[in-house]
Task: inverse folding
């Protein structure tokens, strides 16, 4: 099969890690008989520099034409002083909204190779894990194109006056809530069949609406165990007993915050991938999908062969799985990553964290090369 993939490298370490993900996809193509056609597009700081806009209309249009989008990272100190509407982050929000990718999947699992990178004690991990093992494996499904990120905002009153004010609005429609809940329920069905809605229903009306709709859907997804948790408690439970969670589904802003918290538990944000998906439109072969590492542009280490390419490569694996239903290929990539870790290779963000003395410090290039070697040697 032929697949067209928009590659948006962005800023900072974005270009170097997406280049590795592209190499891996090329190899997947060779091994499994697919052709990936890459279309490179500009967004973020690089686009501001070349066009004056973080998300040029041509980028969004071209991204929409492709079967899926692979994004690196956007932003950096160079563009920090710009007004809100011109900051590189606008490119991300514009791509999310423009592609209609309303469900953001952020898996966070502890790999045995990185056990010591997780700051939690064994007893904390084992206590909440069904199998009594010192590990966890959860998936945060974050609503991505609604809520306070996209609600009405503004300022009132005379600037400087005591009653001058600023506001942002959390508003969710039934449709927005229902569609992301369905993605989360379907994900839970392929995992351990448990879904937890995280909200602030003791205070917020919008959260009470989420609960009502979840309760309605819970009946429909009878095989999934549905539970509810307040977000403040969830923030605590993630560090007290992360093994209790399977799928967490939540609003845009709560998901933003909780996914950063969860990332620390996995040892390094340099390992975390994400998938953002939408609904397939009539006449299109695939649903819209955008895949990106959770880490940012990390300008301090850009261009130094220090960035961990695994999150970008894992994001490519998520693309294979969620956009193209290439499960076998996705698993092969994931296995190549664990294979490289098993060989002892560690980028700087994860070195010295396995408790083993046979670690080899690797740069971006060496780590990606190891993944590619394992994938090449693999018998299908
Ligand atoms: C994320 C990031 C973005 C967000 C920023 C960069 C706009 O923090 O993807 O989690 O808040 O969604
Ligand atoms: Mg965030």
Result:
């Amino acid at each position: 099969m032929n697949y067209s993939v928009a590659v948006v490298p962005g800023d900072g370490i974005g270009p170097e890690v997406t280049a590795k993900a592209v190499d891996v996809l090329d190899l997947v193509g060779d091994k499994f008989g697919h052709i990936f056609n890459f279309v490179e597009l500009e967004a973020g700081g690089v686009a501001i520099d070349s066009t004056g806009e973080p998300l040029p209309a041509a980028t969004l249009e071209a991204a929409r034409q492709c079967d899926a989008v692979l994004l690196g990272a956007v932003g950096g100190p160079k563009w920090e002083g710009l007004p809100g509407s011109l900051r590189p982050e606008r490119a991300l929000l514009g791509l999310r909204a423009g592609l209609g990718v309303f469900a953001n999947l952020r898996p966070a699992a502890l790999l045995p190779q990185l056990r010591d990178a997780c700051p939690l004690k064994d007893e904390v991990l084992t206590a909440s894990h069904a199998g009594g093992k010192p590990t966890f494996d959860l998936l945060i499904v974050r609503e991505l194109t609604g809520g306070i990120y996209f609600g009405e905002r503004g300022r009132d009153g005379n600037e400087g006056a005591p009653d001058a004010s600023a506001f942002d609005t959390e508003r969710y429609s039934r449709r927005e809530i229902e569609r992301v809940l369905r993605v989360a329920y379907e994900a839970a069905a392929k995992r351990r069949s448990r879904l937890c809605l995280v909200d602030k229903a003791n205070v917020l009306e919008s959260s009470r609406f989420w609960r009502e709709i979840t309760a309605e859907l819970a009946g429909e997804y009878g095989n999934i165990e549905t539970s509810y948790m307040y977000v403040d408690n969830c923030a605590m439970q993630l560090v007290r007993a992360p093994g209790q969670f399977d799928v967490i589904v939540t609003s845009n802003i709560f998901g933003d915050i909780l996914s950063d918290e969860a990332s620390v538990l996995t040892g390094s944000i340099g390992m975390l991938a994400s998938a953002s998906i939408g609904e397939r439109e009539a006449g299109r072969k695939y649903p819209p999908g955008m895949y990106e590492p959770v880490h940012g542009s990390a300008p301090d280490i850009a261009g130094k062969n220090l960035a961990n390419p695994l999150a970008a490569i894992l994001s490519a694996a998520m693309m294979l799985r969620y956009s193209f239903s290439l499960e076998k290929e996705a698993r092969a990539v994931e296995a190549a990553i664990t294979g490289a870790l098993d060989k002892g290779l560690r980028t700087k963000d994860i070195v010295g964290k396995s408790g083993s003395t046979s670690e080899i410090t690797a740069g971006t290039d060496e780590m990606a090369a190891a993944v590619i070697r394992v994938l090449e040697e693999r018998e299908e």
Notes: The chain has a mean pLDDT of 95.
